[in-house]
Amino acid sequence: MAVTLDIRSPLDGHEVGSLPTATEDEVTRAVRAAVAARGPWADTPAADRGAAVRAAATALRAAADELAATVAAETGRPVDSAREGVLAGVSTLEQYAELGPVHRGRSLLGSPGATDLMVPEPRGLVVALTPWNDPVAVACGLLGAALVTGNAVVHKPSERCPHTGAHLGDLLSEHFPPGVLHTVTGDGEVGARLAGDPSVDVVAHVGGTATGRSIAAATALTGAKALLENGGNDALLIDADVDPVWAAEQAALGAFANAGQICTSVERVLVHQDIAEEFLEALCAEASEWNADPQPLVDRRHREAVHSHVAQAIADGAEALVGGAIPEGEGAHYPATVLRGCTPDMRVMREETFGPVAPVCVVSSFAEGLGLACQDEHGLAATVLTASMTNAQRAWRALPVGTVKVNAVFGGAPGGAAQPRGASGTGYGYGPELLDEMTTTKVVHIGLPRQR
Questions:
Q1: Is 23 within 8 Å of 39 (Cβ atoms)?
Q2: pLDDT for residue 1 is more than 60
Q3: CB-based contacts of 132, cutoff 8 Å, min separation 6
Q4: Residues 108, 198: Cα–Cα separation, whole Å
């Protein structure tokens, strides 16, 4: 019997649609087709590959409204926000269309009688396993970088948004030769089958830490490169010298945007005792405003996981000042929640909740807060709010994460890239450096022959 992915709206529970899960034979055929196509695609001039990616970006832009509606239907993300995500994917494809043809190696200074080169080459076959929380933007980053550098790609989107992934695949694949880009739908079993295939050269995964670790184990056996951006437990450290109302605005944005379902969402708040009460009062007001127009979580299964963190924190002594309870009605809504009295040993402070929850721990000094922020197995990102340049310098140097933001929970200049650490993954997941991850370097020494 064929297995299907049945998707229900997180807004009201109505059926969005069903798609079949790829069978073992279908996965094998997709891999074989990509293996056959990767050689000719690698031999295609870089400018032509860039033009193909640019054409795919144009097609995606034309379909932005339609695709955004699909994202909203499957994940509950508001249509306007979903459209922003689609257009971010368009921009990423356009960026790689420009960067790919100028991605270069270098020459070395050797003997005058020889030429020495370091030449980037595509790795071969890339498997991209992408998430549901920003499905188009994330996928376009991995697909664009892989394709423009000459790799063939098999893409498996999250089983929570298969229609989005299938639609994206249809839009993009027609701009590449047959076999170069495949999209397969399926659950974790399909992803595991792809990750463990010995024909695969790179497995690029954005998603949970447990899945990332299983991918790392699989690629250790096949020799494929694992490129992982996994879970985070991002700290927000608030100093005593900042406006507590502004700090609450930042905390709310970081914890509640997209219902807390962003890789770099604020997962734990460490606030100086001198401003803690004013901060908590303002944060509760912010949470109430967010709850006036709530965004659902992706599904009820995820809601249960989020609520389990909150319920256990309350059982362990935390107090829910706002939210903290599953609402009645259809769908997968969960309120923006503020927890007071959290301690570093609580699960909600140690693990990624990935929901609209702001667990607050009051600290006696900036140094104490920084020490707690550093105590975590994850290493994705962190934010520091402070008016002290000294404390800002201390923090960004000490925090063992790939990205540190000072006085802004979100933001950054174009072209930036970061490497997650620890349980959060490994390798560059975006930016110009992602082109390096998708290629490997060949050193060439050309000497002079001895002539007859």
A1: no
A2: no
A3: 74, 75, 157, 158, 160, 161, 298
A4: 34
Rounded (10°) CA dihedral 163, 166, 171, 176 = 170
**Count of residues making up the chain:** 452
Q: 3-state SS of the chain: helix, strand, coil percent to 5? A: 45, 20, 35
Q: Is the dihedral of CA 135, 140, 145, 150 positive or negative?
A: positive
On whether the pTM is more than 0.90, the answer is yes
What single string gives the DSSP state of each residue in 292-314?
TSPPPPS-HHHHHHHHHHHHHHH
Q: Which among 211, 205, 210, 213 is positioned nearest to 229, based on CA atoms?
A: 205
Average pLDDT of the chain, as a whole number: 97
Q: How far apart are CA 9 and CA 130, in angstroms?
A: 20
Record the tokens describing residue 319, joined without a space: 């107090």
pLDDT digits (tens, 9 = 90+) for 394-446: 999 999 999 999 999 999 888 889 999 999 999 999 999 999 999 999 999 99
The residue with tokens 């903290």 is 324
Cα(171)–Cα(189) distance, integer angstroms: 25
pLDDT tens-digit map of 122-135: 999 999 999 999 99
CA distance linking residue 80 with residue 247, whole number of Å: 26
What distance in Å separates the CA atoms of residue 58 and residue 56, rounded to the nearest whole number? 5
- Give tens-digit pLDDT for 240-292: 999 999 999 999 999 999 999 999 999 999 999 999 999 999 999 999 999 99
- DSSP label at residue 258: G
Checking if the pLDDT of 323 tops 80, the result is yes
Residue whose token pair is 């999209």 = 183
Distance CA 267, CA 244 (A): 18
**Residue that has been written with the tokens 């494929």 in this structure:** 224
- What is the Cα–Cα distance from 264 to 420, expressed in whole angstroms? 11
Q: Please report the DSSP string for 2-53 in residue order.
A: --EEEEE-TTT--EEEEEEPPPHHHHHHHHHHHHHHHHHHHHS-HHHHHHHH
Work out the number of other CB atoms within 10 angstroms of the CB of residue 308: 13
Backbone angles phi, psi at 155, to 5 degrees: -110, 125
Could you write out the DSSP letters of every residue in 189-245?
HHHHHHHT-TT-SEEEEES-HHHHHHHHHHHHHH-PEEEEE-----EEEE-TTS-HH
Instruction: Provide, rounded to the nearest whole percent, the portion of the chain with pLDDT above 90.
Output: 98
Whole-angstrom distance, CA of residue 398 vs CA of residue 314: 31
Could you tell me which of 260, 142, 149, 162 has the C-alpha nearest to residue 205? 142
